[in-house]
Amino acid sequence: MKIGGFQPFTLSDFPGHLAAVVFTQGCNFRCPFCHNGTLLPRAVRQDGLVPETEVLGFLHARRGLLDGLVVTGGEPTLQPGLAVFLKHVKSLGYKTKLDTNGSRPQVLAALLEEDLLDYIAMDVKAPLDEYARLAGVPVAVRDLEESIALISWSRLPHEFRTTVVPALLTPKHLSAIRAMLPSDSPHRAQRFMPENALDPEACGLRVAL
Predict the structure, then answer these.
(1) Residue 22, domain CATH
(2) 149: which residues sit within 8 A by CB, 6+ positions away?
(3) Residue 5 CA to chain centroid, in angstroms?
């Protein structure tokens, strides 16, 4: 699995758990408000990646001190080795949280079938009819709808999240997003972090000349 970054400790990314965070390399979206631009390319030099063995070794040494691992990105479901990696993590006694953009429901379904997840967070960018504008690329919205349904049906702890960029999303948009989600699923509005935005101008930020 391609790991573009590793955070050894977090109190805020996995509700109720002391956790570490793995950032997978590569994403199929190009959201203008993305602040993790270095994680977008799938092809990177090997010396720019964190070895999987290093992460697993760290987790082995921290058993009893940490109890969870967040796998985020980039987009983790693009990684062919994701399921095998999660099996290793689970074998060490850790709870796992997946952050996903919901674009690959077939991968999500397989992970759920194998009982490899304990918490899921899906980023919902926009109302479905405006998704490409917020994702930066054409998007198969049926895949997003399928992922939303899978997450809801899983009965695992989960949340749906929307990054609120004032220049891109209005209160009407947010209401439309909330309406398309299951009524019993949490939906959290995330603050836009303008630092290092992928496309500052599209986000309504003044660009220095």
Answers:
(1) 3.20.20.70
(2) none
(3) 14
